[in-house]
Amino acid sequence: MARPQHAQREVELAGAVPELSEAEVAAWRAEGTPVVELLARAQRLGPVSGIRLGERPVVLVTDPDAVRHVLARHPGRYVKRSHRMRRLLGDGVLTVDGEAWRGQRRLFQPQFTVQGVRRYERAMRDAVGVTAHTWAESARTGQPRDLVADMRRFAIDVIWRATTGLPLDDTTHRQLLAAARIVAAVAALGPSGAPDFDGDLAEVDAAAGRAVAAARAGEGPGILDALLDAVELPDPDGRLVRDNFVTFLVAGYETTAATLSWLLLLLHDHPEHREWALAQGPAGSSGRTAAIRALISETLRLYPAALLLFRDATEDDVLAGRRIEAGATVALCAYLTHRIPGLWPDPERFWPRRFHEPAPRPALGTYYPLGLGPRTCLGAQFTLQEMTLLAETLLPAFDFTLDGERPAPAFDITIHPDGPLPARLRERGGRP
Ligand code: HEM
Predict the structure, then answer these.
(1) Most buried by CB count within 10 Å: which residue of 110, 178, 211, 346?
(2) How far is the CA of 387 from the centre of ligand 1 (A)?
(3) What percent of the chain has pLDDT above 90?
(4) Residue 105, ligand 1, Cβ within 6 A
(5) 348 or 226, higher pLDDT
(6) 415 within 8 A of 307, measured Cβ to Cβ
(7) Is residue 210 in contact with ligand 1, taking CB distance under 6 Å?
(8) Distance CA 333, CA 340 (A)
(9) Ligand 1 probe mutation, 377, 383, 388, most atoms within 8 A of CB
(10) What is the pLDDT of residue 281?
């Protein structure tokens, strides 16, 4: 689309995006520090800044106004194009763009509203029950557990049950974990390369085939129903249904599992916030639920699971007073926005009450762990509900002591604890 003359003139007058020098990138490489350290250095250059890591430069965006501009105000100027996960996710709703995306999003939307996710509540509660049972066993026998592995299993179990109506068996669990290896093989930034993951892809596809068959037979609560029933989106070879199952799995389980792992780690280190949340009302009360939601929101502020959101500029534009050329790749980093001191008082502190009434809601563009604008997380209500149900059950029932060193954050495609969280569990007496 041609821009009006005055807008084109504005682009020509705007300054270039300030870029980290090659020497600074080389110095960072030599240090071997995580990629977020490089991003933080670029952030110091201004609200938008450039980094040249792979073949193409990336424009880093962390300023709230620029975030709003890209994600919410002008999503047509900044689109998803060459998704790095295409080989795994195919043409599911996360990866496609334009009309193909609009059609799928419109279909799925009703199933993912606050009302819509009620149909998965049974599946979620059953998965919560399995985790609680495992923890009770561990508390009884004294056998330690890895909380990261438990949170992964829980998140996969929920998606599996929401699709098939069946509990997660060990073979399926193992097969679906192969998706995590594929995601890990595709680095978040830098040269994309072509890692060989055919074997892992076959594992994922074997499980996906069974999930789709069960969904077609009407055995689950119907997370894929909208697509299975759609006449407007013909899918003769079933590829689209498979792609969306894998999409929900990949978009939904590492992110949810990482968030839950951080939540447990933060509450272990700051137990007073757990006590505060449980004191806001008895089990099942809206007071307690709101406080538990605040624990989750603050966890998502400190560790928004998706490290970077990528967009491609479709036309020349001016962003935060700088010139963005058509074809440029833009990367938004909620982790850095969420820690800007002027936006968030005492940003490094875990302080859930900043999300609890009467605290005001964060301004648009300052907080976006689940994205923003038309491509905001489709599973937002789904994940908030499953995490809340799990926390409402586990937090009043168990104490846990972490063994060994705290894992540092790993900044891959997701931000997750870089290692296991071995813990000893005890049943809690007292408040239910
Ligand atoms: C804590 C957990 C989660 C986090 C932090 C998270 C985060 C995000 C973010 C930031 C986006 C936007 C990406 C972008 O703009 O480029 C997104 C999109 C998406 N998420 Fe989530 N997500 C989570 C859980 C889930 C779950 C459980 C599901 C499915 C059941 C899901 C399905 C999706 C889908 C399908 C999209 C693509 C939407 C579209 O492009 O229209 N997510 N997610």
Answers:
(1) 211
(2) 14
(3) 80
(4) yes
(5) 348
(6) yes
(7) no
(8) 11
(9) 377
(10) 97
pLDDT at residue 235, as a whole number: 79
What ligand 1 atom has the least distance to the C-alpha of 305? 5
Which residue ranges form the domains of the chain, and what is each CATH number?
A: 1-73+307-358 (3.30.43.20)
- Residue-wise pLDDT for 32-41, tens only, equals 999 999 999 9
Query: Could you tell me the pLDDT band of residue 51, with boundaries at 50, 70 and 90?
Result: very high
pTM of the model: 0.96
Instruction: Annotate 389-418 with b (16+ C-beta within 10 A) or e (fewer).
Output: bbbbbbbbbbbbebeeeebebebbbbbbbe
pLDDT of amino acid 420: 95
Residue 56 pLDDT greater than 90, yes or no: no
Q: Determine which residue's CA is closest to atom 31 belonging to ligand 1.
A: 379
Determine the Cα–Cα distance for residues 129 and 432; give it in Å rounded to an integer. 16
Distance CA 387, CA 100 (A): 30
How far does residue 308's CA lie from ligand 1's centre (Å)? 12
Q: At what angle do helices 380-397 and 239-269 cross, to 10 degrees?
A: 40
Q: How far is the CA of 268 from the centre of ligand 1 (A)?
A: 27
Q: Ligand 1: distance of its center to the CA of 95 in Å?
A: 11
Q: Which two tokens stand for residue 59?
A: 């424009």
pLDDT beyond 70 at 86: yes
